[in-house]
Amino acid sequence: RTIIADLNDATTRGSAMGHLTTTSVRGSMVGATYGFTLLGFMPMQSAWVWAFSGYALASALALVWSFRVLPESRVITPHTEKIRIPWSLQLSRVFLVVFLSAFASALIEPIYLLFLKGKYDVDVLVLAFVFLPSGLVYAVLPRYAGHWSDRWGRGPVIALGITLAGCVSIALPFWSSLILVAASYILFSVGWAMASPAEDALVADMAPANLRGTILGAKEAAAGVGAALGPLAGGFIYQYWAKEMAFVVNGMLLLLTACLAYRWFNNRVFRR
């Protein structure tokens, strides 16, 4: 992400971040197909050997490729200069939005499969097909959604995407049909495919050239803390309050986050 931020200015950074996401997701889909095909046609012990060998080979190829092809994009900072994050109100607000969105989305991660399996009494394989279209959305849409944030602003695209995800989360536990659940998760994925590259681009926009890596790392740390705390809160709500309320709380937090993002960042527009 730091290399992408270095090689693109504010007018193209969202599109480039989205392109990075789609490429990563497509690679994940190819890898998952390879791994599950092995598990389906080989004994487990042999399949694990081939799967991890494939992982090692792909990693080695990526290492060689990165040394031979990737340009160095870092802005050189004198070694005598101490690196410090230039904290500001706007940067703190970005990290809060990142934390809240990660916390809210992680809140339902450990429970939604349990909830859907229990409510609709279907096999996990059926649920995998329910979520397949949402995976395809992630493999295509982020590139275009990142371009929308370049044209219409980071804040509005983040807010609209998170609002979509929040509305779906509130409604999802009350659907009576698994088909409606599948359609809802497509919208859920559309929302996050819009918000994620715009968030990355927004953080990069605010980072000085010689501190982009540090600040993008701090952004990932904020998201990681939210993602670590979210499942604990979601599991507690699911077990001790009400199963549906985990989704409702998730949705309400996302709507709050969307309002904050629009209020704070709706002027981050870079039209081409």
Note down, in words, how this protein is organized.
With 272 residues, this protein is mainly α. The protein contains 10 helices and no strands. It has helices spanning 2-7, 13-41, 44-69, 89-107, 112-120, 124-152, 154-171, 178-206, 212-240, 243-265. It starts with a helix and ends in a 7-residue tail after the last helix. The model has no long low-confidence stretch (mean pLDDT 84).
Overall, the morphology is globular
pLDDT averaged over residues: 84
Q: What letter string, H or E per element, gives the SSE order?
A: HHHHHHHHHH
Distance between the termini: 22 Å
Number of strands: 0
Poorly predicted regions: none
How is the main sheet built? Answer: none
**Number of discrete helical segments:** 10
Strand content: under 5%
Assign a percent range to the helix content. Answer: over 70%
Structural class, please? mainly alpha
Name the quaternary structure.
single chain
Features of this protein?
272 residues, mainly alpha, 10 helices, globular
Task: Describe this structure in a few short sentences.
This protein has helices at residues 2-7, 13-41, 44-69, 89-107, 112-120, 124-152, 154-171, 178-206, 212-240, 243-265. By secondary structure, it is mainly α.
Task: Give the secondary structure arrangement, pairings included.
Elements: H1 2-7, H2 13-41, H3 44-69, H4 89-107, H5 112-120, H6 124-152, H7 154-171, H8 178-206, H9 212-240, H10 243-265
